[in-house]
Amino acid sequence: MKVLVCVKQTFDTEAKIELKDGKISDAGINLIINPYDEVAVEGAIQLKEKGIASEVVVVSAGSDKAMDAIRTALAMGADRGILIKQDTGADEYARAVAIAEVIRSEDPNLVLAGHVAADDGSSQVPTRIAEILGWPHINVITSLEIADGKVRCSSEADGGSQVTEVKLPAVISCQVSWNEPRYPSMKGIMQAKKKPVATVDAVAVENKTRIIEYFLPQAKQAGVKVEGEPEECAAKLADFIKNTAKIEVKA
Amino acid sequence: MAGTWVFVEQRDGNVRKVTYEMISEAKKFGDEVCAVIFGKGIEGLAPQFAKYGADKVYVVEGDVFAQYNTGAFVAQMAAMIEEYKPNAVLFAHTFNGRDFASRLAQKLNAGLATDVIAAEISAGKGVFTRAIYAGKAFAKVEVTTQPILATVRAGVFEVKENPAAGEVIKPAVVATQANVYQNIIEFKPTVSARPELTEADVVVSGGRGCKGPEGIKLVEQLADLLGAAVGGSRAAIDSGWLGHEYQVGQTGKVVNPTLYIACGISGAIQHLAGMSSSKFITAINTDPEAPIFNVADFGVVGDLFKVIPVLCEELKK
Ligand SMILES: Cc1cc2nc3c(=O)[nH]c(=O)nc-3n(C[C@H](O)[C@H](O)[C@H](O)COP(=O)(O)OP(=O)(O)OC[C@H]3O[C@@H](n4cnc5c(N)ncnc54)[C@H](O)[C@@H]3O)c2cc1C
Ligand SMILES: Nc1ncnc2c1ncn2[C@@H]1O[C@H](COP(=O)(O)O)[C@@H](O)[C@H]1O
């Protein structure tokens, strides 16, 4: 079984965001694999270790910099990579179209992705890919099993969790609680350098959304901080809760 | 193309508050507001939407809609959009809402703005504000296709009663079992007497400073006094003191309460991502330098094991 993993390169979650010429500046920012996609990569490698997957292919759409994300996934244990060269201004639609095109030619049995990108926070691309391919999907999974040409997953749901089964091929998007991604070993990093990475151009399609502007949150006014006897502090906090936040206390 | 549609987010007839938030907000756009509900045994709910301003309620009943499944819901909604041509369709940014809206948007070859916190909709134009980089920046984005599609974050819009006609319309049902490709084997509801994290007016969260289940118990006591939901930092979740569904933050849930109380939480950037838009933030932490104090409207430098019990007594007064 062939597994394809979609990895997006994102800013380190610690990164401080600044604007330059009205755009988000990436100057001096450490770039990482989107944390959810790292979990997808780990899940795919574990399927290979269990003998369920025979090949793990990682795909990333973006600038040349995204090569680092691919190399990291290869160092973790993926077999080969595909970099889809695409303008980083491509929206969810354009990215899904470009990635789906590559998936079609690769023809995997399973596509794994993150359920959301830590930068744009969209949660759209995997579901869009599934629709383009006409495949079933399950989102925000926390466990995965494969049997009899089907994939069965637990996933987070509104007000609980659920277990869903779909036929393969399918697109599955992951929650971070599924697994604990490994750190690439030294050996893995060395091997990754020799693993093949193909580069293809994204199919050109127009965005369906347009960014009008970016802005930063307003700096928060310094609040009150009290120190001292717990009794006194607690009384002041109780006052804040009742009289400033105006929260009703239950009997 | 006319009308702002609000897709009703419900399970077994229990409607999520975000639905009323969306209906109330949709009234501001001046266009006709329509609630759209898919389900089984849900017809009786229609007057509820009228109360908040639904001029029309599209009711779609059937076994295939008994619980959310992407295939049938998308097939039905796509057919209704084709027939009635709404100007905009709003969904809740819940697990189901984002799943539904993304697959629908792609089927329609359309754009979609997810997790929006502000909306301006007029005929043929939809501009939305959304948080990016986990709330460290914002983007104003226009959806340039029609109908205008968006998913809306819970807790950002105010609910206002605004009675309207709520004329019930029953569109043709086109989705069948053949459209269903996900076999939902089991749904396990979270059993909790407390409100849902993403909908709660007050959230009390515990972190590593709780040191164990006893500390979390204090957090729960405080929460129950305030009718609050309980949340946790990743440290508290990773330590096994709370289930994963309680995690607040970048990789957990985004909460938007009136009051957020952080107990024994340092305020790491990934935690702030999930709660910094709360209206009032308070914190109890032994370390006066903890970053949580940079965002707290009211902070107590102190030991939560000492402060929370007294706080509970004070609140009861
Ligand atoms: C990709 C990624 C995603 C992440 N996602 C999330 C996320 O979604 N949510 C999240 O929360 N974190 C997330 N994290 C983890 C985050 O970076 C922090 O490690 C985590 O939030 C720390 O939790 P904490 O504040 O409870 O623990 P700590 O940082 O250890 O802080 C504990 C605090 O408790 C205080 N304390 C100790 N004893 C007491 C006492 N008796 N009374 C009062 N205060 C006391 C201490 O002074 C300290 O400030 C993520 C990290 C990464 C890398
Ligand atoms: N440019 C990209 N390259 C590869 N995968 C992507 C890209 N954008 C999004 N994805 C995948 O889709 C998931 C959700 O992204 P998003 O819809 O942008 O929140 C990510 O976690 C990735 O797995």
From TrEMBL, chain A:
Please report a single Pfam family linked to this protein.
ETF
Q: Which domain of life is it from?
A: Bacteria
GO CC annotations, alphabetized = cytosol
Q: Which SUPFAM superfamilies match?
A: Adenine nucleotide alpha hydrolases-like
The record's annotation in CDD domains points to:
ETF_beta
Q: Which UniProt keywords apply?
A: Electron transport, Transport
Identify the residues that the record assigns to the Electron transfer flavoprotein alpha/beta-subunit N-terminal domain, covering every copy.
21-209
- Show the GO MF annotations: electron transfer activity
Q: Which Gene3D superfamilies match?
A: HUPs (3.40.50.620)
Q: Which proteins does it associate with, and in what oligomeric form?
A: Heterodimer of an alpha and a beta subunit.
State the family named in the UniProt similarity comment for this chain. Belongs to the ETF beta-subunit/FixA family.
Q: Matching PANTHER family, A to Z? A: ELECTRON TRANSFER FLAVOPROTEIN BETA-SUBUNIT, ELECTRON TRANSFER FLAVOPROTEIN SUBUNIT BETA
Q: What is this protein called?
A: Electron transfer flavoprotein subunit beta
UniProtKB/TrEMBL annotation, chain B:
Q: Where is the Electron transfer flavoprotein alpha/beta-subunit N-terminal domain?
A: 4-180
The cofactor remark states: Binds 1 FAD per dimer.
The record's CDD domains line, in alphabetical order, gives: ETF_alpha (cd01715)
Q: Name one GO biological process term.
A: fatty acid beta-oxidation using acyl-CoA dehydrogenase
GO molecular-function annotation terms? electron transfer activity; flavin adenine dinucleotide binding
Pfam families named in the record: ETF, ETF_alpha
Tell me which residues bind FAD: 208, 233-234, 247-251, 264-271, 285
Task: List required co-factors.
Answer: FAD
Q: Which domain of life is it from?
A: Bacteria
Which keywords, in A-to-Z order, does the entry hold? Electron transport, FAD, Flavoprotein, Transport
Instruction: Name the PANTHER family for this protein.
Output: ELECTRON TRANSFER FLAVOPROTEIN ALPHA, ELECTRON TRANSFER FLAVOPROTEIN SUBUNIT ALPHA, MITOCHONDRIAL
State the similarity comment: Belongs to the ETF alpha-subunit/FixB family.
Task: Spell out the protein name for this chain.
Answer: Electron transfer flavoprotein alpha subunit apoprotein
